[in-house]
Amino acid sequence: MIPELGQFATILALVVALVQGTLPLLGAQRGEQRLMALGRPLAQAQFTLLLVAFAALAWSFLAHDFSVKNVAQNSFSQLPAVYRFTATWGSHEGSLLLWTLILAGWSAAVAVFSRQLPPEMVARVLGVLGLVSVGFLVLLVFTSNPFERLFPIPLDGRDLNPLLQDAGMISHPPLLYMGYVGFSVAFAFAIAALLSGRLDAAWARWSRPWTTIAWTFLTLGIGLGSWWAYRELGWGGWWFWDPTENASLMPWLAGTALIHALAATEKRGVFSNWSVLLAIATFSLSLLGTFLVRSGVLSSVHAFAVDPLRGLTILAFLGIVVGGSMVLYALRAPRMVTGGSFGVFSRESLLLGNNVFLVAALGAVLLGTLYPLFVDALGLGKISVGPQYFNAVFVPLVAPALFLVGIGPLARWKQADLPDLMSRLKWAFGVALVSAALLPLTMDGINLQVTLGLFLALWILFTVLQGFALRTQHYQGSRVRRLFGLPRAFWGMQFAHLGLAVMVVGVTMVSNYETERDVRMPIGSHVELAGYRFVFQGVEEVPGPNYLAGRGTMEITPPRGRPFTLYPEKRHYNASGMIMTQAAVDYGLFRDVYISLGDPLEDGAWTARVYHKPFVGWLWLGAVMLAIGGGLAATDRRYRVVIRRRKATPAAATVPAATVPEVAT
Amino acid sequence: MRRWIPLLLVIALGAFLYLGLFLNPKEVPSPLVGKPAPEFTLPVVGRPGETFSPAELHGQVWLLNIWAPWCAICLKEHRVFRELIGPEVPVYGLTWKDLDREAAPLLARDGNPYVKAVDDVEGRVAIRYGVTVTPETFVIDRAGVIRMKHVGPITPQVWEQKFRPLLRELRA
Fold it and tell me: For A66, which DSSP code?
């Protein structure tokens, strides 16, 4: 009964989405207020219906309803409750439902937080979001029904893939989807702007907070995914250039470019065509990611069950969304280049530089990801593109962008003073370069990769500090108070840029100074690595809720500080029979100690792999700082002012948001 | 005109993605095709004391199917073997890493689609055949040479399109 309720709610949601995707758009075109006003209640109704559907599926999982095929295939009577809940989105069907629910959630959020926008704009944005939702609901209802029943009813389920039974997997997919789907709002604003023919600063201002929030979620989602891979795949890698990882990196790069382009469009009215194109591209790349993961076009560790019809349906949908947008763009993008002029050296030109490098990096990742497909489709053979390609191409494209991070925020709009800036930054540049050149000597001699990485990180750090100094000089009274009086958007930018520096340190250090040993360990034997001494105390059997673990005990004496013990496991999952390596990690600010058990040998001896990973945690610390920066920027006063003013006295519009003084980008 | 460039790029990309739907990225051409099938001697599942090695089948065209009791698609494929393929050509099974010893009871319960299934519990023979996933199927000719490797389950369509013509040729 409950699953049928869910299915019914899904079908109703499709009907609602159809209306939401047509009538408000029609109303906006004809100027009919009554049709336009339909958008908001319909978006909220659709969200409510999908919430019911999602709750029904989650209930089926929690209540062990193995008559539902999805539950039988992805759950198990012994599976702990928290993983039964996350198993709701552990399958293709369930994750599609989650995706659709989140899309409806974003639409409902737009409906609630858009009172200050003109009604035509709201109607168009919600209409476009409704149409996107129709696409996904059609997929859900006609090709991927998560509520399908089974008869005869199996006694027990096949269990959730053990790889997905991890804390990181609880929040990774929802966060990632919040990001992917969140870009649909920026997309909808772009399409609405094209439809209305007004690609102006107001459009950019409305798009910005939505884009930034979506980007923040995507950043967190990717970060968590990488952390999951690090902990769960058993050999301590954190980025594999797997097609699915690339599928999430591509919208992230496009979204990062979009955030910066929108800043220029809002402040100076420049790059508006480019921003529209980027907004469309960002969401299209999110959809492309969905297609790549679910169609089996590329082989990947992430791929869901493959079904050609499903792949075709998603491709058709992708084609309609992207193709339609591009036709609209070609027809409606303004012919005249709008906006003010700017000098060769100005914040505009630096932001343009940022966009060029980011889009080039995006292109390189896209090419590398799809290259095996191109070659195969042309009948030229089978190849795979590995990390060597990506590292060789990605680093040189991203390094200049990171260098620009140091200059852009300090340069003036319209025309910046190059000699002045150079004299301001000469110390930052010099100190960063000299320290970065000297630091590797304290490790193991000259290392240009490390020097490059540390230079960029220090350069960003110093210029960020310089940015704070510039903002607080010429100010009477306490500099500290002035510091905290700076707008959130400025703080957000500084925080995010600093996060990049932290991340660069992590990547540089762990890539260059990681050490590992793969050893055979009889009971009582020891191994030394990076000054740490590991003593193996054997493996004992420990039952888990739905698995049996061989739990190893490794006593570790660090070069300084107190000894500690780690318990790496080898788990045998009861239902699927899968054997999983559960690594044990001792986390630290400056290093992680990471152990994974290999295979048993005779006499209680085991093979084991021990790693010393300097600064690896900075990767995820940096990602969190990026996200905090995004969160701060998206909740800047000028966005909140509008919302608060609406709540207080809608009529008493005092200061238009655009003229709030002293806002950072 | 310039404004149509994004659309053209998208169309080109879409065409490739469409073609990609009909390709199988997991199917890597096996270097073993055209080479003699690696020799082995392994115990037969469910018949204690009996062994099998490919040399016994010299002069015959036969299939070697790599499967595992924990592989759901393999079990689905068994029906195709029983109903469609078994009557046409002898199918032998290589049981890969049956660590829980489920293969014998499973074949006894559901019906054995193989003439003989051998037990490669450590997966050493599978390594020599370059097995990457289950199921995989090798076509071996009268001289004991591997003529084709198919990755993934054999559906009736695949059988019709890929296997039948080759078998007809090998037997001619």
Answer: T
